[in-house]
# Entry
Amino acid sequence: MQNVEQDAQFAAEFHAGVDAEKIAEIYAEAYLNAVSGQGGSVDDAVGEFASLVDVLKSQPQFEAVLASAMIATDEKVALLEKAIAAAASPLFWNFLQVVAKRNRLDLLLPIFAQAQILRDKRQRRIPITITTATEVDSQLFEALSGKLRELLGGEPMIRSVIDPEVLGGLVVRVGDTVYDASISTQLQSVCRQMIERSAQEIQNRRENFRAG
# Structure
């Protein structure tokens, strides 16, 4: 965990000129680097972190105690040890002790959020929101996923939203960015092709039925 210690020291010394999000990113990157350096699974590491976050969200008083500047670090570590140390991996437990030592337990939720973002970036997972006027069926959803995979060069993590007032029937958003017309046009083309194919299949079935 030496890299974690070094990065934590950096964050502690320069926190005056760095916002909380950046500090959280430093810790998150140090944690994932330590996991990768020991040949561990980044997905498993983030999953373990998620388990702690679930505890904090379900017990806001516990989170408040860890974030309090009025409570000694040793007491916080003792509480964490009692709550999760037995189930935690050695690497994650060591990481939490480093964060506690640097008085940054108030940033556990932001650190977790940054760990998720970094994990997705490293694995080329791209969070995407697709807003459509009507529900997207599974076949069309797969076609859209494939087209996005081709256009963006990564694995799309798609969240589907239905909004009947969407103009044009489709909006693609990556983060805070609505993608340009060229990508939207290509995706619209996929939709049209699927609709036309479905209509043709229905027509063929009708003709076959009449012929029979």
Notes: The first helix runs from residue 2 to 13. The radius of gyration is 24 Å. The beta strands are 125-132, 155-162, 170-174, 177-178.
